[in-house]
Amino acid sequence: MKLVREHIFEKFSDESDPIRDIGIGIFNKPYECKNNDEAYEFIYQILLQITGEKDYHSAIIPPNDEYIIPNNSWWKIKQYCNNYITVKGRIFSISPVKLKEYVANKENIKYKE
Q1: Considering the entire predicted model, what is its pTM?
Q2: Which of 16, 62, 73, 98 is buried deepest, with most CB atoms within 10 A?
Q3: How many domains are contained in the chain?
């Protein structure tokens, strides 16, 4: 058996995360939840990493209040849930309204309803 040593010289930045880029870490692993509350808490904890936003306000409040959650964030969240999160063995059916309320309550964000 030949030992192969590999180095990653890419630096972490706002635009690049080599750990995520090579497909390791929390992002590429299935996550089983006992209930929906646990799933919303998990999404809340990794929301900024999923969306690529710098703050929670940008991730859940659209600039013109046209949508419940900004489209670019919503599709990333929805895709992540479909691929990796299950509740009692079933794909987690996330609600944009509930997610927005959950994050807004945790972060004390005010928004128009």
Answers
A1: 0.73
A2: 73
A3: 1
